[in-house]
Design goal:
191 residues, alpha+beta, 2 domains, seven-stranded antiparallel β-sheet, two-stranded antiparallel sheet, 5 helices, 26% strand
Length: 191
């Protein structure tokens, strides 16, 4: 598959969105390489990533394993699953979306929100400012009280992307909740 194919362009775009980096400098590729290792203990060299993004010259067709590692980072099992999902989407590469939910830039520091997703998962997050949150309650979730993360928004029916998720002294990770069905609801807790 050519690295300029629509599926690979979407893959790159989704990786950039998830990481919050536009992949324009050598340090962007170094950071992505580290995050991939931290996420799933799978290694892609910064040079391989630079070739895929076209930052440096390289093979026109990336290896299947390279694409699968990046697809897993986005929550898919393998590259084939990602590519199939992209074929089913009859939309352009870019998408704007809105919906019921909460945008982080609309919150005041100290506000709390409750978020739920299937199956029967529920958490309460405290907004600490600057898109940063702390988990203060967690039911049936892998998230634990005291975990910290950054997030831009929580929209019903959309997956919840938590970036820079930290637990104690562990290396920050990216976490996706509600990958298939999105979150059930997100609401402010009135005090």
């Amino acid at each position: 598959m050519d690295k300029q194919s629509p599926q690979i362009q979407v893959l790159r775009s989704e990786i950039e969105r998830l990481t919050g980096r536009a992949m324009k400098t050598p340090s962007d590729f170094d950071q992505l390489s580290l995050r991939l290792w931290d996420f799933n203990h799978e290694y892609l060299s910064p040079t391989t990533l630079k070739r895929l993004w076209g930052y440096i010259e390289g093979a026109a067709a990336p290896r299947y394993n390279t694409l699968s590692i990046l697809a897993r980072f986005l929550g898919y099992k393998e590259w084939d699953e990602f590519a199939e999902a992209m074929q089913k989407v009859n939309e352009s590469e870019s998408e704007t979306f809105s919906g019921e939910g909460i945008r982080s830039d609309e919150l005041q520091q100290g506000e709390e929100i409750e978020v739920a997703w299937q199956p029967k998962r529920r958490c309460i997050f405290r907004y600490d400012g600057n898109y940063r949150f702390t988990v203060i309650d967690s039911e049936n979730s892998k998230l634990r009280i005291g975990d910290n993360f950054t997030a831009v928004c929580f929209l019903e029916g959309r997956p919840m992307y938590l970036d820079n998720l930290t637990r104690g002294n562990q290396t920050p990770k990216t976490y996706v909740a509600g990958k298939k069905n999105g979150i059930s609801y997100a609401r402010r807790i009135e005090k």
